Amino acid sequence: MDTEKLRRTGYPAFAGYDVGVWGGRCGTRARDHHFPCYFRSVSVSPTAASRYHWPMTALPIRGPVRIIGIDPGLRRTGWGVIEAEGNRLVYVACGSVEPPDDLPLSSRLLGIHEGLAAVLSNHKPSEAAVEQTFVNKDGVATLKLGQARGVAMLAPAMFGITVAEYAPNQVKKTVVGAGHADKQQIAMMLKILLPKAEPPSADAADALAIAITHAHHRQSTALRLKVAGL
Q1: pTM for the model
Q2: For residue 128, what is the DSSP state?
């Protein structure tokens, strides 16, 4: 009996090999059902083998991911850029876009877009996150804030960057640990998480907090977008 052929019997992993197949007429004794009478060989094609075995490839080496967080607003739109590599966060830059108050609404929205476009062009983030609109009793103010938020989402989208959205309470809970934390608590935690960061305004600090939130939730966010087909 060819023991080499017996070793290869029936496994698609040995694609292109002669694979042993038992067959033939069997005797009437019980042991004959377990020991057929003759041995023949067939060939398993690589195509058939591929149905059962996936090619083994090395996992890609992942480097740091640059993230921009955006806190939209008509007077001041804060932005903050960080790099995330595993649990390690590194501060890159932050600031705010401040169009003049005396401009008409359309010009202020244009100024926000051009300011964010300049930031995106300079720092080249690969992912973006924007805070969701907080609905208050003033419907007109909420509507105007929504327009600024739309511009804040449009700017990175025009650069081909996927934009994630986070509720204000989720940002506070991620950074501080409490969903109703105030701005002073957020600023204190930023000094711990990003020691080199010195945000010039509360809007820039909020934008950094949004970027940190995305760094912690980006895997689950990417999975939701993939499932949704976006």
Answers
A1: 0.68
A2: E
